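Hi! If you just cloned this repository, the fastest way to understand the data is to look at a raw example. We've pasted two of them here, unedited. The first protein comes first, obviously.
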Amino acid sequence: MQRFKNILLVHPCDEETLTRAQSLARNNHATLTLMHVERELTGTSFITSPDSPALELQGLVVREYQSQLSELITPLKSEGLEVSWKVVVGTPFLEIIREVIVKKHDLVIMTAEGKGGFKERLFGSTSLQLMRKCPCPVWVMKQTNRNPFLRIMAAVDPDPAENSNDELNALILHLASSLTEQDGAELHVVHAWTLFGESALRARGRFTESELHGFSQVEMAKRKSLMNALIAKHTNDGVHVHLVHGIAELVITDLAKQQQVDLLVMGTVCRTGIPGFFIGNTAERVLDEVNCSVLTVKPEAFQSPVTFA
């Protein structure tokens, strides 16, 4: 599936991220833009030396990055890729979103800002802002990741009562399936579920454990049926299905670690009528704990809260 046609790669990036962006551009016959955003200079704006005139520091830095990006894309052009570069000054996530909106990019890809691990977040402020507010999918690559990927996991939440949620599930599975095929990877699909009001139902011994178990079995059967229908409709054979009982932010994270997942493809929460409301507590907690690359996908109706005159 040729899903991406206009890819934006955030600079600086590591070699794995650059290689992945090249591969996506090549396989999708897409254009590729490398973009560097330099934060606006505060304080001293000139540097001087006894033997040369004063130099405007911001302009000097911008020209240096322009030179770096120009050199970086030369070998990419020689491969036949349609590639360009851009250097701007401003707040990174705002300038990236501006570029996405104006140039209609359909994917942003960048290197994770943190190192990950138990005590350090993998995702920094710019990537989280983009995951919250950027109107197109955002792919954050963990450093030192395997390339190609060995295991890709799609997190879905089938709900026949929510058409927008069903559309989002379809998009997640299409993207995950396409990338799985491209890399020759295993595809894992996970759905985390709980019995609604389970803790309240257990309170004060109103129901016996046998009754609660029966409620859970009925709910699990319903979820299994929804999952089977979703997977049959949107994926091929050979998918590893995980229907896991528990809090989503806990069980998805644990499963991703157990299965040594390289890429997690996940949707975001968007409530109709609240522009820019997305990525709720569940998604953010998953991002806090997961230690792999993540591709976040928004519903088609998502509207970025970032606007420009």
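Ok, and the second one:
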Amino acid sequence: MTKNDLDTFWKSDAEAKLENCFNSRAAQVSLGIRMSEECVYSELNEPGDPWNIAALPLPHRIELNKRYNEKAVQTVGIPLLPEKFPPPEAIYPPIKRIGEVFGGIYETGYRTGEWLHHKKLHTPEDLSNQLDLINIMRADGYRGLKQFIYPENWEQEKKRIREEFGLQPPLLRHIRGPVTLATSLFGLENLSYLAIDNTELFIRFGNTIKQVILAMAELSDREAGYTNSNFIHGFSFADDDCSLFTPEMYHVFGYPVLKAVFGKYSPEAEDMRFQHSDSAMAHLLPQLGSLNLNGCNFGPTVLVEEIREFLPCARIDGCIAPFTFMNNDRDFIRTEVKRDCEAVKKTGTRGLNVFTAGSINDGSSLESMLTIMEAISEFGTYP
């Protein structure tokens, strides 16, 4: 693509993004891919851990991103990675996450990413005792939960950061989904047996997850100065493992969680109701459709026509397989982009935001992004 072609593409892309990618005046489908910081290593031929970018010294992180952006401008026409970050003293101290409320441990390993596990949660009795502990923590309203989640210096740091930088504490509006959380903590086999052998405890587990998510989100609102009648709308889940549940299991365990959280934080039609599940979870589409999702990112086997049947108003972030993008095979990339563009036009709708059906991994190249842009220009123009 020439410079003029690139400029024209990005102008059209900005129009395609309007109205949640349903802009009836858009000339082409939208491109959601903006790469990720993981990609700096392969692109720049630099050593490093793509799973732990945040651990880099900030000057080195910025230097890598600047070098990457210089190459991006030459290749695809625009910079893609951030070059400005808040200074360390403006960042709120870390708080405990939902897995830790359930007694779990988050770990990160080189080229293995982050995983959540629980060392002692193996039997129904273990699980029941853990849920009892959570009930005790929540018995005095938000005091016990706040005491557990927030560090000792929280109030001091909150006051300082507000005064020095005018920044409020971050809100909880995205979280690991209920099934992925549960399988990470208790194991898929244990959870599956529980659904059959102890339905009451199975449902109680899901209900406790729902209560904790709502409590943590409301606690984050309080810390940022919002109230039950005045808060930031929208919520999203990342629930890869939901594919492992039958529709019946999901209906009594995962579905009530999303319904309650969306009911609280996404009550209006335009409020974000988003689910990421990069897995083969098409059998759950009827239930997710009843939740009126307006955004989704599903696995590479869950394709546009099937999604659109059950989610008519959802922006579809997909459906390029992450390994297709990472392998940088031009022909495979063009084939998948063509498939998705022609599929959305066949449905007579819009709302396709070309993206990977999952994460953008180290190894995915700028040249492959350019290939996607060229394919959109060729196959993704609306009639």
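That's it. A detail worth noticing about the second one: The mean pLDDT is 95.
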